[in-house]
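Hi,

I'm pasting everything inline rather than attaching a file, because the server keeps stripping attachments. The sequence lines come first, and each chain or strand is labelled.
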Amino acid sequence: DGGITQSPKYLFRKEGQNVTLSCEQNLNHDAMYWYRQDPGQGLRLIYYSQIVNDFQKGDIAEGYSVSREKKESFPLTVTSAQKNPTAFYLCASSRGTGGQPQHFGDGTRLSIL
Amino acid sequence: RKEVEQDPGPFNVPEGATVAFNCTYSNSASQSFFWYRQDCRKEPKLLMSVYSSGNEDGRFTAQLNRASQYISLLIRDSKLSDSATYLCVVSPYSSASKIIFGSGTRLSIRP
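And the predicted assembly:
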């Protein structure tokens, strides 16, 4: 079955540590996205990529970095510069531009130790 | 004013009832509209797209009112399994990269 796989499901970060969240899709979608969701809040866009080897900052990119070396993969690194990383991180993909709906992975919960 | 606004609820209705909620958007150039459903501590899942002429999928009906800049979701004959948070999603441009999620409306169906 086609879908989006995020790993790990739960992640703990020590102070000063960088951590990387994995996102893989086999839907052959061109566009991929990373969102952050805090309790009781909506989704906020961190980064997005419309094509391999290209990505753009979203609304809250500070303290995060991404890469898009393969169409299927869009890993997110939460750097030590992100002082409040505890949140639910969601990866999504869509067929492309033009108002296509996004499909989500099942998320990674990140907490600070 | 937020770009996309939803009544956070919670809406607490009995099983079998009809419930409706709206979502307003501020950008009149918005092109694409969706409703997503999110269960507690889970990812959002696409419920339905919203078309200009309105559309129905079983017990769910979505409508778009461009003049007043809102979309609506109507759920008929509500089931216990409909309990979730419903997210309104608006794309102000033709690019999906600018998609904006509302904060959601919580719906709780009681037996």
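Chain A touches chain B through 25 residues (CB under 8 Å).

If the labels don't parse on your end, tell me and I'll reformat.
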